[in-house]
Amino acid sequence: MQQETFLSYRGYRWLIVTVIAAIASIVVYAANDPVGGRNGGTAVGYAYGTIATIGIIWLMSYGARKRAYSSALGSVQGWLSAHVWIGIGLLILVPLHSGFSFGCNVHTLAYALMVLTIVSGIWGVVNYSTLASRIESHRGGVTSKQILEQLNSLSGDINAMCQGKSDQFVSSAQRLDPPFSVGLSALLKKSRFLHIDQNVAGEVLDKMPEGERDDLLRLFGLIDQKCDLMTGLLEEARVKALLRLWLFIHVPVSVAL
Questions:
Q1: In a 3-state reduction of DSSP, which class is residue 163?
Q2: pLDDT above 70 covers what percent of the chain?
């Protein structure tokens, strides 16, 4: 059985409502033939403009609803579903309001801002639908806090293994053990922490004193485990950044609208 999402909420309830409303609006628009032609100043134009304005204000109220945890005004998932589908429906309603008359004026600017708001919202929906599951998939059933604890434990094991070893062993460990940092360039690119190259490992192993080679092999294993964990955390940070980035467009443009 397919899991219900905010897009398919209650059997695509809000998609169906939006489609029915859009068809009814188009039928009324087509049947109406006012003197002077169709435009935003006719009775139908004013009615559609009023409905669109109320719709925009209601859509912006979603930000308050999702933070009102004790609200009885429907579920947050239901509100989000309506937010998405009704928002898309406005792409049809507003041109009907204006009679598809656009020019260099404040009305067209408002429509452009609305389109940018909705397009950025669609981008956000796509991100949540395709990226959010990647956060859970790489964790293997554990939380990010537990991954950080494992990472700290491995770092402690590596430091402990270096105690009492030769300077060559310690310098090799410092050279091969990558520092964990998440910068802007790492978030924008498909960066990852690479495992120890076999050729490099062979060179280091050949130069290591005989009595420390077994410990060095174990060190290689610990470092490879760290690389796996750090790559997973980096990927999670990248996904979370993408999931938040669109809001820096969507919210300001909504306010401007």
A1: coil
A2: 90
DSSP state, residue 210: G
Backbone phi and psi for residue 192, each to the nearest 5 degrees, phi listed first: -155, 160
Instruction: State the Cα–Cα distance between residues 7 and 167, nearest whole angstrom.
Output: 59
Condensed to tens digits (0 to 9), the pLDDT of residues 136-184 reads 665 666 777 888 889 899 999 999 999 999 998 999 888 888 877 666 6
- The one-letter amino acid at 34: P
Structural tokens at position 123: 């981008």
Is the whole model's pTM more than 0.85, yes or no?
no
In single-letter form, the type of residue at position 185 comes to S
Of 182, 187, 193, nearest to 242 by C-alpha is: 187
Measured between alpha carbons, how far is 4 from 10 in angstroms, rounded to an integer?
A: 8
Give the pLDDT band of residue 126 (cuts 50, 70, 90).
confident
pLDDT tens for residues 41-79? 999 999 999 999 999 999 999 888 877 776 777 888 899
* Residue 230: band (very low, low, confident or very high) from pLDDT cuts 50, 70, 90: confident
Instruction: Tell me which residue of 187, 224, 191, 219 sits closest to 204, measured CA to CA.
Output: 219
The torsion region of residue 145 among left (phi > 0), alpha (psi -120 to 50) and beta comes to: alpha
Residues of 177-209 as b/e, b for ≥16 C-beta within 10 angstroms? beeeeeeeeebeeeeebeebeeeebeebeeebe
Only one residue has tokens 């060095």, namely 216
Token output for 257: 């609208």
Q: Are 226 and 155 a contacting pair, CB within 8 Å?
A: yes
Contact assessment for residue 227 and residue 193, using Cβ atoms and an 8 Å cutoff: yes
